[in-house]
Design goal:
Layout: H1 7-10, E1 15-16, H2 27-40, H3 50-70, H4 75-78, E2 79-82, H5 85-99, E3 103-108, H6 113-120, E4 127-132, H7 142-150, E5 158-163, H8 175-184, E6 188-192, E7 209-213, E8 224-228, E9 245-248, E10 253-255, H9 269-272, H10 275-303, E11 310-311, E12 319-323, H11 329-337, E13 341-342, E14 344-346, H12 351-357, E15 362-366, H13 373-397
Parallel strand pairs: 1-13, 3-4, 3-5, 5-6, 6-7
Antiparallel strand pairs: 2-8, 7-8, 9-10, 11-12, 12-15, 14-15
The chain binds 4'-deoxy-4'-aminopyridoxal-5'-phosphate.
4'-deoxy-4'-aminopyridoxal-5'-phosphate binds at residues 21, 84-86, 112, 114, 163, 167, 192, 194-195, 213, 349.
């Protein structure tokens, strides 16, 4: 796997354990984006010339292949390109709020800010936010969700907004059960899939909105997908503009009847044109990618105590967060950095959860399909050493 990622040849000294923030780039993506910018740059949808037509074909092919990869019928009606998960989750909230005048949104407390803020900061007092707690293992508590839904009258519009995997806990939420609950109460469902889509094959059918960012899937920055149920094509675009219409007069408009309705203006086409080869690679390697994630996850779960840390929870996939007993998260991050080990620390854009489960900040180690067992073990050993050094320092100063 590692040979597919030029980063590791260019920076052999680096141990990159920050893939949950962004993954390293597949070689085809870097090559295809460069080719686009230097050889094939042209705009889609708007030209009759052969260069523009080539871009149109790549754009269509990207959606077809994503459809094949994720089992989505009629991808042209369901896949919206955008700038990333944050835009997708904001657009989903905007579409829902423009379609339904009031309601309640049930948001997982383990959510990233991008799933929380579009609702808490919408300024629309007719939408209420109710947070769903986690069960004792750290996953969305289905009983809490059901109980809180039960408190609301039948007639109230409901939205369930959760992630598939939290970027703090690395635990896989039970999407099938959440889908069933949403169907039972006719709730609109929003899934933040950004931490799972590069790791596991998931069944995303039956949800209203599913969002992810390509930069976490070995792909380009500044490109995301929002998967929509076709019923949302009946509503007006969030940002009207070029590409969203079939005809316009001075006082009327006919919107397109496919997902381009939500893709106004010029898209990130150098990124989109790199998707066909990326998605083919993902389909080809899906089984290996999944098996690799499972094996690294097991190593981390088995060995984490060797590093003398209490993990916030054991993990299911992709990442683990730790709370230092001695020293600050910045101490560990800087000391690891001095050894070229790149991890992340802080509030991880999930403050409501971080406030519940920690003193205020955590260390996060996260991996991708290119991460080796040796790298993870080395990082854990180093964490243990730093911990021991800091403990000695503290003892000396007491
Ligand atoms: N949700 C989760 C769970 C994430 O981990 C992230 C990225 N940290 C986002 C949403 C936001 O993704 P982006 O910055 O690509 O929009």
């Amino acid at each position: 796997m590692r040979d597919y990622f030029p980063f590791f040849k260019r920076r052999p000294e680096v141990i990159y354990l920050d893939s949950a923030a962004t993954s390293q780039t597949l070689y085809t993506v870097a090559d295809d984006m460069r080719d686009f910018m230097l050889t094939n740059k042209s705009n889609a949808h708007r030209s009759g010339n052969s260069m523009g037509t080539w871009v149109d074909k790549q754009y269509q092919l990207s959606k077809e292949l994503i459809g094949k990869w994720l089992n989505i019928n009629k991808p042209e009606k369901r896949i919206v390109f955008n700038s990333g998960t944050t835009q997708g989750l904001n657009d989903a909230a905007s579409m829902i709020m423009s379609a339904m005048s009031s309601g309640v949104v049930f948001v997982g407390i383990d959510s990233h800010h991008s799933l929380i803020l579009p609702w808490t900061q919408s300024g629309n007092a007719k939408w209420r936010v109710v947070f769903i707690n986690l069960d004792k293992d750290g996953r969305i508590d289905l009983d809490d969700l059901k109980a809180k839904i039960k408190l609301e009258p039948m007639a109230v519009s409901k939205v369930i907004a959760v992630n598939a995997v939290s970027n703090v806990l690395g635990l896989v939420n039970d999407l099938d059960a959440i889908k069933k609950i949403a169907l039972d109460v006719a709730a609109v469902s929003i899934i933040d899939a950004s931490q799972i889509i590069s790791k596991r094959k998931i069944d995303i059918s039956g949800f209203d909105f599913v969002a992810w960012s390509w930069h976490k899937v070995y792909g380009p920055m500044g490109l995301g997908c929002l998967l929509i149920d076709p019923v949302w094509l009946n509503f007006n675009p969030v940002r009207p503009g070029g590409g969203t219409v079939t005809s316009v007069s001075t006082d009327s408009v006919t919107w397109t009847d496919n997902a381009t309705k939500f893709e106004s203006g010029t898209q990130n086409l150098s990124a989109i044109c790199s998707l066909p080869r990326l998605v083919e690679w993902l389909m080809k390697h899906q089984t290996d990618i999944e098996a690799h994630d499972i094996s690294i996850t097991k190593i981390v779960n088995d060995q984490i105590s060797l590093a003398q840390f209490t993990p916030i929870s054991k993990t299911d996939s992709g990442l683990i967060c730790l709370e230092p007993v001695i020293g600050t998260v910045e101490d560990y991050t800087m000391m690891l950095d001095a050894k070229n080990i790149m991890i992340r620390s802080g509030k991880l854009c999930a403050e409501p959860l971080i406030k519940q489960i920690s003193q205020g900040a955590l260390l996060r180690l996260s991996w991708g399909c290119y991460t080796t067992k040796q790298e993870v073990e080395l990082a854990l050993d180093n964490l243990g050493e730093i911990n021991a050094r800091l403990s000695r320092l503290v003892q000396r100063t007491v």
